[in-house]
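hey can u check if this looks right to u? its 171 residues, i copy pasted from the old doc so theres a chance i mangled smth
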Amino acid sequence: MLPMAIAVILHELAHLAVLHILNGRIKSFGAAPFGLCIEYDSSSLSLKGEALVNAAGGIINLFFAAASVVLYCIFRVDLLNFGIVSFLVALVNLIPAEPLDGGKLLHLGIASAFNPFVACKVSAIVTYVFGFMIFLFSSYMLLTSVSGIYPLLFSVYIFVCNSKTLEKVYL
C-alpha cells in the first residue's frame, strides 16, 4: 500500500504545483472514493492552463515509473513495485472518463475545438462507454475468478460522477 499512497500523493502534488505556478485557485481538496480529489476554479485558468493542471499528475507518475526502471537497470535499486504502481496510477487517471484527468482533458480538447455544450455531451457519452466497458470487464472477473469488486465499484463511481455532467447538459 505504501507505493500506491506515494504514487497518489505525488500525482496530486503535481496538480497542486502546476496550479500554484499558473496562479490558479483551489475550490476544494479532499478524499475521493478512489484516491484524492482537487477541485479548482476554472475561471482562474485558461484552457491551456487547465489542460496543464490536469495532465501534470499523469506526467509525474509516468516520470517516476520511468525513473524507477532506470534506477533498477543501472543501480539495481529495487523500486520496480513503485514504478509499476506509478504507471498504473497514470494509466487509470488518463482513462477518458469525466471524473478522471483523461476525461477532463478530453472535455477541454473538445471545448477548445467546438463549444462547452458539445464537450459536455461528447464527454458524457465517452464516459458512459468507458464506464460500461469497465463494468463488463469487472463483471466477467467477478463471475470467473471471484475478483473484480474494485473495478466494479470504480465503474459505479464513474456513472455517478457522469450523472453530474448530464445534469449540466440537460437541466
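The CA atoms of residues 107 and 122 lie 8 Å apart.
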